Amino acid sequence: MALTRAAFDQYMVPNYAPAAFIPVRGEASRVWDQSGKEYIDFAGGIAVNSLGHCHPALVGALTKQANQLWHVSNVFTNEPALELAQKLVDATFADKVFFCNSGAEANEAALKLARRAAIEQFGEQKNKVISALSSFHGRTFFTVCVGGQPKYSDGFGPKPAGIEYFEYNNLEAFKALIDDDTACVILEPIQGEGGVVPADAAFLQGVRDLCTQHNAYLIFDEVQSGMGRSGSLFAYQEYGVVPDILSSAKSLGGGFPIGAMLTTAEIAKYLVAGTHGTTYGGNPLACAVAGAVIDVINTPEVLAGVKTKHAQFVDGIQAINAKYPVFSQVRGLGLLIGAVLTEAYQDRAKEILNIAAQNGVMVLMAGPNVIRFAPSLIVSDEEIATGLARLETAIAQFVA
Known about the structure:
Elements: H1 6-11, E1 23-27, E2 30-33, E3 38-41, H2 44-47, H3 56-66, H4 79-91, E4 96-100, H5 103-122, E5 128-132, H6 141-146, H7 150-153, E6 163-166, H8 171-177, E7 182-187, E8 190-191, E9 197-198, H9 201-213, E10 217-221, H10 235-239, E11 245-248, E12 259-263, H11 265-268, H12 284-297, H13 300-323, E13 327-333, E14 336-341, H14 349-358, E15 361-362, E16 364-365, E17 370-373, H15 381-399
Parallel strand pairs: 3-15, 5-6, 5-7, 7-10, 10-11
Antiparallel strand pairs: 1-2, 2-3, 4-12, 8-9, 11-12, 13-14, 14-17, 16-17
């Protein structure tokens, strides 16, 4: 007998509040629950399912590797990890890669590396971390404190020192904070949890220039914006602003847990043997799947398709809004899109999510006032049309 949603409340720690239905099967951008009801998936596992559900290339890579080698630890290396590292280096600014299991771990590694490298070169005083308000960099205690959202970091005791915050996209506010004691600056090129807010190009370039001027490392958190979601493999390529360190996860594994930190050889040398580690990082299963993901995504057809599909989503959402004006703005890059609720509907994004699910379409929130879309990068035209039609029905019910 299948377990029901009530089993979550009985057995699971209550840090989540999952939906009433339980998905049990997925194919492309469709999901079915225990009762057989179909949903169009515009949530993508929160920007994770970059190639939808059960993509044959990913299933094939995982199945093949599962019959060869599962885990050897970092006492040894393995071929899938080496192959994936080579692919990421060939496709980016980076010379070196560190593999882990999540975006939080990738950011933790990036922050530790930046501080270590800065301190070893310039002394103990060069340890300040600068981050944007309303950012999100993970749920470890260090990364959640760096994130600049007290609602996630308060209540756990004393916080790490040396972290300062400024308003996103405000170059003057940033300029007032950075100094020669700054070790690093960490930014999302597109703020995800903060409301799907793309960076201004001039802001990013200004931050890059000031980091260079003050010998501070620029970290781009591309956990959500990376792996094709912007229409380029990584969003920094879309902007033409190159970081010193980059974090990746979510879409990198297409649903299989993996994270990566990318950097240059000059910076990587400060993480000598024994300074950082992770038991499962570079796992052959994860790296084999991620290697297949990058092979599919890093092609002109898929990346160009992301930009085409962006226009389809924006046009569709705006058409809905013309009938039922609930959104004040539609923003984002590629297939990371946010629809901002008007003043009249403030704090009601969760209601829309629930009504949308009842009508067979899965969407996300980015705070209480933004509906977020992060679908598969290869979602079909038919799936987009069907999902948006279901969303329109949901919005009509919401305003009724």
